[in-house]
Amino acid sequence: MAHGTSSTLPQAEHLTRSIPRVLAEEGTSYSFEFFPPKDDVAEQSLWEAIRRLERIRPTFVSVTYGAGGSTRDRTVRVTGRIARETTITPMAHLTCVGSSVAELRQVVGEYAGAGVRNVLALRGDPPGGPGTPWTVHAEGLNHADELVALVRTLGNFTVGVAAFPDRHPESASLDQDADVLVRKADAGAEFAITQFVFDADSYVRLRDRVVARGRDLPIIPGLMPVTSFTQVRRMAELSGTPLPAAVVSRLEAVADDPAAIRGVGVQIATELAQRLLAEGAPGLHFYTMNRSLATLEVYANLRA
Fold this sequence. Notes:
Elements: H1 13-16, H2 19-25, E1 29-34, H3 40-54, E2 60-63, H4 72-85, E3 90-95, H5 101-113, E4 118-122, H6 144-153, E5 158-163, H7 174-187, E6 191-196, H8 200-212, E7 219-223, H9 229-239, H10 245-252, H11 258-278, E8 283-287, H12 292-303
Parallel strand pairs: 1-2, 1-8, 2-3, 3-4, 4-5, 5-6, 6-7, 7-8
């Protein structure tokens, strides 16, 4: 396995930061997530979005894997580039999908070689896409807690995991979701990031269930400002996140006006963010859809 940079060279400050330590010591965290570019043109526009974000000094940024792990190599490369060429702390994504344990070790080695120290360990969507049965790789891992445990054996990594306030599509109950999150914490996870939420109460319910189980795991809620009604409706269906009636009615009222939808989407996200922070959320994780401008508007509203 490739190890990190030579111990004789001091690592840049943004690469040595541990996300849970930042959450504990620095107050409200603001982080941003991008999906992997499909080609070089998309990678260029992603890079421009990251550069815009760099000015506000986000706590961290992350780049996801494509469906079924399809963009793994590009994701690893872009994450490494953020580590090398910006002052932003990168959080690496890692999923079990379609990978043997040997391949997972190799990817972690690549992240370590790029100086990346914070990893989000996910089982990932089924290889056939959301709603299809999960199939484990013959030489791979079946659950996120196994991946957390593996990453913890491979070096000095801080590991985060996913949380599901509105029930994971394969889960029988909200209690089961809380139990799974506790298992991930027991395996060594030190923070969690939720699927995007549109209802602050569902976030609070999950957090309180985890606290009731005796775990003090910081859980960062995910936010996605709506810039396209059809897109958010489709994503909500795929992820199993219900859109509250109040959100739907506000968007439907301006459904024929793209600019108005964007404005209302930013407004809804700002109100939700304020409520989540008032409820004690340690920070906010923005799903940018590779467009940083709407999320930057929400951020500006919150800072104002």
